Amino acid sequence: MIENEIISLIKNADRIAILPHVSADGDAMGSSLALALALKKLNKKPMIYFEEEMPSIYGFLPGRELVRIYDEKPDKYGLVIALDTGDMERLGKRAAIFNDAGITVNIDHHPTNTQFGQVNLVNTDSAAVGEMIYRLIEMMGINIDKDMATCLYVAIATDTGGFRYSNTTPVTHRITADLINNGVDVSYISQTVFETVSLPKVKLMGKAIENLELFENGKLAIIKITDDLLKSVGAKEEDCDGIVNIGRNIEGVEVAVVIRQRAGGELKINFRSKNYVDVSVIANRHSGGGHKRAAGCTIKCGINEAKEMLIKEIREVL
Amino acid sequence: MIENEIISLIKNADRIAILPHVSADGDAMGSSLALALALKKLNKKPMIYFEEEMPSIYGFLPGRELVRIYDEKPDKYGLVIALDTGDMERLGKRAAIFNDAGITVNIDHHPTNTQFGQVNLVNTDSAAVGEMIYRLIEMMGINIDKDMATCLYVAIATDTGGFRYSNTTPVTHRITADLINNGVDVSYISQTVFETVSLPKVKLMGKAIENLELFENGKLAIIKITDDLLKSVGAKEEDCDGIVNIGRNIEGVEVAVVIRQRAGGELKINFRSKNYVDVSVIANRHSGGGHKRAAGCTIKCGINEAKEMLIKEIREVL
Is B199-315 a CATH 3.10.310.30 domain? Predict the structure, then answer.
C-alpha cells in the first residue's frame, strides 16, 4: 500500500518540505497545514512553501508559523511532498525545491495528475486532498487535534463548495463528522470562508446585477463588465470570479455569460449552464475550452458585437 | 423510550395525519414527506396537511401526492403527528385536525416547545427534525430509499444552513453520509434549494447594494428599502428576507441594519451582528426582540430620522 510507503519515508526523514499548488486554495492550504502540524507531533521539521502570500480570509488557519513564502531556494530537503498539485508546472518557482529533494512524494486527487513524484498517491475518488491527509494522519496513529481538524475541515469544505458539489461523498461527511467531534468551530469558519465578501466585490455584484440583461424568454443572462466599471467600484480582476453565477442562479436561466472587456479591447468570455446546454461547444468555437457546465474563451471584437454574436449562437442550443 | 411508544401508536393506526408548522420550511416539509413515505411502506394511510401552497423551489420533493393544502376539516384521524411545531398556534387552521384526533404526537426540536401533544418527543440537540425522523424510520426497521433520503437530506441541509450553522453536529454529518449513500443527488438539490434566486429578488439585491451605506469606519452597514424600491423591481415583501446579510457579510462590518419602510409609514428594522455586538439590546429598546446576532423591531418615525437615531445607538456599542 502506497500510504505505508509514504509513512515509512516520513518516519525516516527529518526536514520535510510541503508544497501546495500555485495560487493555493482552501484544500491546498488546509491539507498542507494539517500535514505539517501532524509531522510536528512526530518531532519532524516540516516547512510549507507557498508561491504567494496567503489570502487574508485564511488568516485564522492554525500552523501559519510553518509557512514560508518562496523567495530563494532553501537548503536541500530529505523529503519533499507536493500536495493537490496535478503537474510540475503547478509548483511554479518552487519546482527548484522539488528537483533538489532527496526523495519526492506526490499526493493528489486530480484525474489529470502526471505521476511526477518518485512516490505517487493519486486518489481521484477523494473530494479533497484533505480527505487523503486525514487518512494518512490516522494511519500514522496521530490524534487529530482541534488545529489539524480545523485545517482539514477547511480543505474539505472548500473543495466540495460547502458540501454542495457532486464530488461530495458519504466518506466526505463521515470524515467531517469526526473533525467536528474534534472541536471544529463550524459557524465561525463557514462565515469567514464562505460568506465574507470585500466591499469592492459587493459593489461589483451590485453593478453586475444592474447591467444584467435577459434574452430568449429569460433563459439566457448576459452581464458586461468593462474596465471603467471595475474602476468605478475599486474592484480587482479577481473580483470578477463567480460573477457569472449571479446570472446562472436566476430562476429560469439556463445559460449565463459574463463578457469582460479588458484594456486593449480583448474580451474574456465566461459561460455557465444549469441543466442541459453544453457551453464548452460554444467556447471551443472561439478557441476556448472547459466543461459542459463551465467554459470560457477570448474574443477580439467590440463588446456589443460579441454580445449579439453570442446571443445568436446560444439561441440555437437553448 | 418515547420513540418506541410512538412506533407502537403508528403500528396500531390506519389513517395518520402529519402536520408541519405554518409557512413550512425545508425541515418541516422534508420531515413530513419522509415520514409519510415511510408510513406508506408500513401500509398505513398517511396524509400531510400544509397550511399554504408549497414554495416552487421544493417542487422536486418526492411524496408530494401525499400532500393536501388545508381547506376544510377532513374526517377524524386516529393518529395525528405534528412536526417541527413549537406550539399549537403554529398549526394555524389545522389545529382543527389536531384537536379532533384519536391521539396526538408532537415531534420537534425547538427549545420553546410547549409539549402540546399527548405524546411528546422533543430533542433540542437535533439540528433538524429530519434527524429525528431518520432515527424513527431506522427504528421502525424501514429501509431508507432514495425518495426518503432526498426528503431527509433537504430537511437537514436547510435547517443547518447547508451544514454551516453552529447546530451542525457530528450526528448531522453521519446521518447525511448515510443519506448520500442511499442515492441523494447532492449537487442538483444544493443548486435548487440554496442557489436559485428569482429575478425580482436578484434585482432587489442589486438595489440594496446600490443603497448600502457604511458608517463608523465601515463597521456599520445600513440598507434602506422603501415600497417604491420594492415596486420598481417587482419584488414582494418576503424577498426582503436575508437582504440584511448582504451588509453583515462585508469584510469589516460588525453590525448590519435594514430599514424597511412600509405603507402607512411604519418602519420594520432588521439587525444582524457578526462577532461581538448584542443587537437584541438595541431591538429591545424599541420594544422589539431577538437574539444577540439577529434581532428586529418596529419604529414609527421618518426613515432618515430612524437612520440617524440607530447610528447613534449602535455607535455606543461598536
Answer: yes
